[in-house]
Design brief:
It is a single chain. This protein has 392 residues and is α/β, with parallel strands linked by helices. The protein folds into two domains: 7-42 and 282-388, Aspartate Aminotransferase, domain 1 (Alpha-Beta Complex); 64-279, 3-Layer(aba) Sandwich (Aspartate Aminotransferase, domain 2), CATH 3.40.640.10. The chain is built from 13 helices and 15 strands. It has helices at residues 16-23, 44-62, 72-81, 100-111, 126-132, 151-156, 180-193, 216-219, 250-261, 266-276, 280-306, 333-342, 372-388, and strands at 30-31, 94-97, 117-120, 138-141, 144-145, 148-149, 161-166, 197-200, 224-229, 241-244, 313-314, 322-326, 345-346, 348-349, 362-366. The strands form four sheets. It has a seven-stranded mixed β-sheet, with helices on both faces. The chain has a four-stranded antiparallel β-sheet with strand order 11-12-15-14. Helix 2 (44-62) crosses helix 10, helix 4 (100-111) runs parallel beside helix 5 (126-132) and helix 11 (280-306) runs parallel beside helix 13 (372-388). It is globular, with a radius of gyration of 21 Å. The chain starts with 15 loop residues before the first helix and ends with a helix.
C-alpha cells in the first residue's frame, strides 16, 4: 500500500461484537450476541407522523445546515429530563451528538494524550475502549464487583489519572447497577482527589421495577461529563445522543464536534423533538420496560432449568439489555462460540470487554431481540454445547 498509516491508526481495532454479528447472520441462528434494541419497540407510526409534520411545517430548515450545538428545543428537553436524575442542567450545557458513541470519541479527542492514564471498570464497554485506544492512553482497570467499582481500589489508582469512565446503570456488558452506597463512595473519592468522571447512561431508563438512584453527575456537577442516548428509548438508526458538560469544557467539545461532522442531522433532531413534545416518551418507555422485563425473566428461568448440574453462574439484572454469565473453570468462551454457532445459538465472549487480564470463561447474553420461545430454545442449545465441551 502506498499510503503511510498514522501511528494512531494501528491502535484501531474492529469491534469483536460486529465481527460476531456477521457470523450470526446465517439463517436459523438465535443470537444473544448483539447489543441491539428490540425492533418491536420502535415507534414507527409516531415517527412517520412526526416526519410529515416536520416537512410540512418547516421542511426547508429541517433539510438545511444547522447549529453545531444542536436544536434548541431538543437541548431544552434533555436538560428538563435530567432533573429526574437529580441533575440541574442548563440547555447551554447540552451538546447533541451523532449517537452517544460520538460523545465518547469527542471525549477521547479532547481529554486524552498519548500516555494519559485513564481508569475503567472491570469489565467495561467495548465501544468506549475502541474510542479511547487510538489516542494511545494507558488504560488501567479498577477492581469491580456486583455493586460496581471498588472505591478503595479506585482511590489507590487516581494519581495522575485524567478521568474514570463509568456506566452505573445496567452496565454493558454485565447488566449490573452501581449501588447507592458505592455511588456515594465513588463520588467521595472523586471529590477528595479531583478525579473527573465520565458517566455513560444509555440504559438508565430501562429499569424493570425500580428507577435507579441519582446519577453520579448530580453529585459532581463541575467534574463530570454525562453521556445519554435516544437509541434505546426511540431508535438507534436515528443516531441521536448528547453530552452534558461543565461550561468550562463545553467549548472544546463543541470544536471537536464541528471538526467531526459540523452538526448532527437537523432533520433527525427535529423529528425527535416533534415526537417528544407531547409527553410521548412517558407513554412509550414503559412498554419497552415491560417487554424487556418479560424477556429477562424468560432467560433467567431458562438458565435455571437448562444449566442445572453445570457449574455455570449468572447475575440477575434489574434493568437494561444484558446479563453476565461465567462458564465452568477452565472453559474459554471464545473457543466455545463456534460450537454454539453450530447449534444455532450465539453470544459474545466476555474477554473482549476487559482492558487487561481478561476472564476467558465469561460471556455476555442479550435477551431483548429474541422471543420467549427463542430464548428457551437458545439457552437449551447453549447448555448442551457447554455439556459437550466441559474440561476433562
Amino acid at each position: 500500500m502506498s499510503f503511510t498509516l498514522a501511528q494512531r491508526a494501528h491502535k484501531m481495532n474492529p469491534s469483536v461484537i460486529r465481527e460476531i454479528l456477521k457470523v450470526t447472520e446465517k439463517p436459523g441462528i438465535i443470537s444473544f450476541a448483539g447489543g441491539l434494541p428490540s425492533p418491536d419497540t420502535f415507534p414507527i407510526d409516531a415517527m412517520r407522523e412526526a416526519c410529515e409534520r416536520v416537512l410540512k411545517l418547516d421542511g426547508r430548515a429541517a433539510l438545511q445546515y444547522a447549529a453545531s450545538e444542536g436544536l434548541p428545543q431538543l437541548r431544552e428537553w434533555v436538560a428538563n429530563d435530567l432533573k429526574k436524575q437529580g441533575m440541574q442542567v442548563s440547555p447551554d450545557q447540552v451538546l447533541i451528538t451523532t449517537g452517544s458513541q460520538q460523545g465518547l470519541d469527542l471525549v477521547a479527542k479532547v481529554l486524552i494524550d498519548a500516555g494519559s492514564k485513564i481508569l475503567v471498570e472491570t469489565p467495561t464497554y467495548l465501544g468506549a475502549l475502541q474510542a479511547f485506544m487510538p489516542m494511545e492512553p494507558d488504560v488501567v482497570s479498577v477492581d469491580s464487583d456486583d455493586e460496581g467499582v471498588d472505591a478503595t481500589d479506585l482511590r489507590s489508582k487516581t494519581r495522575d489519572a485524567r478521568f474514570i469512565y463509568l456506566l452505573p446503570n445496567f452496565q454493558n456488558p454485565t447488566g449490573r447497577t452501581m449501588s447507592e452506597a458505592r455511588r456515594a463512595a465513588v463520588a467521595q473519592v472523586a471529590l477528595d482527589t479531583g478525579l473527573p468522571v465520565i458517566e455513560d447512561n444509555p440504559y438508565g431508563d430501562l429499569w424493570f421495577d425500580q428507577t435507579p438512584t441519582a446519577s453520579l453527575s448530580s453529585r459532581l456537577p463541575e467534574q463530570s461529563l454525562y453521556l445519554g442516548s435516544f437509541s434505546k428509548i426511540l431508535a438507534p438508526g436515528l443516531r441521536l445522543g448528547y453530552v452534558v458538560a461543565p461550561r468550562a469544557l463545553y467549548p472544546k467539545l463543541l470544536q471537536a464536534k464541528q471538526a467531526a461532522d459540523l452538526h448532527t442531522p437537523s432533520f433527525n433532531q427535529r423529528v425527535v423533538a416533534e415526537v417528544l413534545k407531547d409527553g410521548f416518551i412517558d407513554r412509550h418507555v414503559p412498554t419497552i420496560r415491560a417487554l424487556y422485563k418479560r424477556q429477562c425473566k424468560a432467560m433467567l428461568q431458562a438458565l435455571e432449568r437448562e444449566m442445572a448440574g453445570l457449574d455455570v453462574t449468572w447475575n440477575r439484572p434489574a434493568g437494561g439489555m444484558f446479563l453476565w454469565a461465567q462458564l465452568p473453570k477452565g472453559m474459554d468462551a471464545v473457543k466455545l462460540l463456534p460450537h454454539a454457532v453450530d447449534k444455532n445459538v450465539a453470544f459474545v465472549p466476555g474477554s473482549a470487554f476487559y482492558a487487561a487480564n481478561p476472564m476467558h470463561e465469561t460471556l455476555r447474553l442479550s435477551f431483548v431481540t429474541s422471543t420467549v420461545e427463542q430464548i428457551q430454545t437458545g439457552v437449551a442449545a447453549l447448555a448442551q454445547t457447554i455439556r459437550e465441551h466441559l474440561p476433562r
